[in-house]
Amino acid sequence: DTAVSQTPKYLVTQMGNDKSIKCEQNLGHDTMYWYKQDSKKFLKIMFSYNNKELIINETVPNRFSPKSPDKAHLNLHINSLELGDSAVYFCASSQGQGIGYGYTFGSGTRLTVV
Amino acid sequence: DAKTTQPNSMESNEEEPVHLPCNHSTISGTDYIHWYRQLPSQGPEYVIHGLTSNVNNRMASLAIAEDRKSSTLILHRATLRDAAVYYCILQGAQKLVFGQGTRLTINP
Q1: What is the pLDDT of residue A87?
Q2: What integer best gives the mean pLDDT of chain B?
Q3: Which of A5, A34, B84, B91 could be stapled to B32 by a disulfide with Cβ–Cβ 3.0 to 4.6 Å?
């Protein structure tokens, strides 16, 4: 059983399109995150949700909109995709408020905008 | 976010212990020390974390200096599967802030 699963694994799309990435965790964790890893391999946090409530929004363009229908799911919708959005997006989850607990990451979604 | 300093790269041999250092001189009293690793084409993987005392688990040991300004991740017997980028992270808020990490190469 995959603890944190993301779909799709690969996504190739044209500039200007709108796309969504889905994430689900079966660990019973309260907090979920989206991270972006760019071509230089830096991992940066984008958003975090605790029990469906937005906790962190790290100066991400408003073309990116996270949605958490329940605490086991955190989806990422991206409008008007740009070339610079090409990256690997990782979903993660942790217990409680996330402080003092380990994070479990998904295997990533590689987004390529052409 | 408090900063950590790690060597860019390290090399070790298979079946030998590996000590990965991390300096965090600006750590505050409530910051947790986390270690994650990322194997090629995979997501980051939790290794270990601690606050003040040394910690052991099935993957590794974490040795924390008495003043908490540095820590060392110890892999007791490296295998080729341990080749990865290892990140040392201070967590004081509800997020992990990743640095550049140490790229660990294991020689057969």
Answers
A1: 97
A2: 94
A3: B91
Dist CA A82 CA A113 (whole Å): 7
Distance from chain centroid for Cα A84: 16
Instruction: Find the largest Cα–Cα distance for chain B.
Output: 40
Nearest to A101 by CA among B15, B32, B19: B32
> Given this model, what pLDDT does residue B84 score?
97
Quick check: helix, strand or coil at residue B80? helix
Residue A4 phi, psi dihedral angles, 5° rounding = -125, 115
In this complex, is the C-beta atom of A103 within 8 Å of any C-beta atom belonging to chain B?
yes
Q: What is the pLDDT of residues A34-59, one digit of tens each?
A: 999 998 888 999 999 998 899 988 88
Find where tokens 């300093």 sit: B5
Inform me whether the C-beta atom of residue A108 falls under 8 Å from chain B C-beta atoms. Answer: yes
* Strands (E) located in chain A: 4-7, 10-13, 19-25, 31-37, 43-50, 53-57, 64-70, 73-78, 87-94, 104-105, 109-113
Beta pairing, strands A109-113 & A10-13 = parallel
Q: Which position has the higher pLDDT, A96 or A14?
A: A14
Partners of A104 on chain B (C-beta within 8 Å) are: 46
Task: Count the alpha carbons within 13 Å of B93 in the hemisphere toward its beta carbon.
Answer: 8
Whether A40 and chain B come into contact, CB under 8 Å, resolves to: no
CA distance B5 to A76: 32
Nearest chain A residue to B51 by CA: give it: A100
